[in-house]
Each structure stands twice: as C-alpha cells, then as structure tokens.
Amino acid sequence: MPQTDVLAVVGTCPPERHRYAAGLAADTARTFFPAARLAMALDPVDEALALAPWAETSAGAVVEFPTGTPVTEVIGEFAHPSSPARLIGITCVVDAPHLLDDLGRDDYFAHRAPGGARTYRACALAAVTHIEYASTIVLVGWDALTTPDLSRTLAILSALSPRARLRLHPAPFPAPEQPAEYAAAQERPGWIAVLNDDHAPHMTDQRVSALRYEALRPFHPARLAALLDGRIESGDFGTVLRSAGFCRLATRPGTVAHWEHVGRMLSFQPLATDAELGADDELLAAGQDIAFLGLDLDGRALCAALDAACLTDDEVAAGRAAWALLDDPFPAWEEAGTD
Q1: Is-above-0.90 flag for pTM?
Q2: How many whole angstroms separate alpha carbon 23 and alpha carbon 52?
Q3: Structure confidence by residue, pLDDT tens digits, 167-195
Q4: Which one of 115, 174, 184, 203 is most buried, by most CB atoms within 10 A?
Q5: Are residues 32 and 135 in the same domain?
C-alpha cells in the first residue's frame, strides 16, 4: 500500500494555526485532520498516523497538530520505515506581533507522552522547536509590524531555522508548497548549523546575530548559575533568545549534557558518559560547545564572561576530588544511559 503524503501544520497560536491549516487543505485539495480531533487521542502522533491513510483525495492530507505535540516525535514516527504516511513538509504558523513574547514564556502545558503518561513541556521550547524543524514558516499578522520590526522578525526566524522557507500570510504573491524530505535525524535547527560552522540565514538584520562558544574546561556550576541568573538574564550582553549545544559541569565529570535554553527556560540533560564510548565512537564535546542566537549580542563580552565561569588554572590543578566539593545549585540528574 503506497504511503499517504502528509503536510503537518504546527504552531503555538491555535486560532491562527487552525485557520491557516484549514485554508491550506482547501487550497491544495487535501483531506484536513484538525488538532481538535487529534487532541482527543492519548497520543496525537499515533492518531495522525492512523488517520492519514484514510485521506479522501490522492493529494494526501493536511494534519494540524495540537500545541503540545513535540515536533521531533512527529518527525521520528513519520520517518519510521513502517509508517503508513510520508511527511512531505512541516509548516509552522507564527503570530508575528507575539514572536518575542512566545519565545520568552516561562509557563508549561500538559503533554500526553506515548503510553498516556502526562508530562509538562515548556511553552517557549515548543514554540522554538516548531520554528527550528519547519520546512516552511508562515508569518501571520505581519502587516501590523513596522518595516524595521518586520525585518528583524524575519531575521530572527531565519537565524533560528536557516533552511526554512519564509512566507507572509496573506501573501503578496503566490508561493506554492514545496515538498521537503524528513528523515529521522534532522539538522535544520539554526543552533546545529552554528555548531557545524555553516550557519547562513538568508534573511539578516544588523541587530540579529549568532555565535559559537567553545572551551575545553568544565564550568564551575555556581559561577555559571550566577552568570545565567545575573548578567545574561538582565541582558548585559544583549538579548539571548536561544542557546543550545553541549556542556560539562565540573561537579559531574565524565558526562556531556545537552544545554537547552530559550527565553527564560534553561535545562541541562545528560546525554552520554565518557565511560560509555566505544573505540569507534566520537566524543560529543570535550568541554563546552554552545550556540547563542539573539538581539544586539556583545559576543566578545559574552564569551569572556563564559570563560570566567569555567574552572581556573588552580581549580583544574586541584583535580576531580576537589571539583566534587564545589557548590552546585543545579538540579540533580540521573546518570546518562540509566532508566
């Protein structure tokens, strides 16, 4: 049985997302499966996979996903070899006047994980990952912005998702959807492009920039926390909209953590331990490797402040036994690779 082509529509502004998704389905003669229908299921992604083969037209389906659906789960499930549907694009609908507010939210919404368990997901993280993994970003409400604000908004979106097509809606001229290939592993996010040294957004603005921070020494947790809660939070180096990458804390040696930050939401999650590496495995990061994207960034001052949050010469020389005694205000985590 041939796979059904599916265009996914995501976004954290339900009214605008729904209107666009319904219009897209009508304009492209595709069957429309709205978010309200998927939200009744324990797992919206599984529900989408079950519904897609029942599309009533040969063109396939437009599936609008509920706000809390992790877009990486959508990609992973649809890219599975046994999937009955083929993901040919992810359209993220962004409410232009509220983009910075959406990226700066500090609240959470409930999400039903596979199996029906209820978890909580940061709204800002949902907003930024929808943008980062999109093949097309549709900007609604853009006509309410001044020309400089529109330029800056487009540049932010392009920095976050440099491979996405940007479209204004209502569009000044027609721009048909173009299929995009989605495999299980994706390198669409701008922060990954920064770490790969190939970040080349096609929309730019002099206030929007990105930088890569690298350091071999681990962070002193207390100094890092003070920097994050103090000078970075207060905007001393400009507005950091998004940072992500890999880091190491001195009190947790041998473990590489995923640095995940957007707006006022920050987390460190263990990814791997050095002890788990095989002879042919590549080290994720020897120390710090973090991408920063934002407005009016003072990259030199930010990197100097991050350097100051790493261990000093004397602290490095003291060794791991001394590092274990350092103040560490961050939440404890389970060892990477454990259940």
Answers
A1: yes
A2: 18
A3: 999 876 666 677 888 887 789 999 999 99
A4: 203
A5: yes
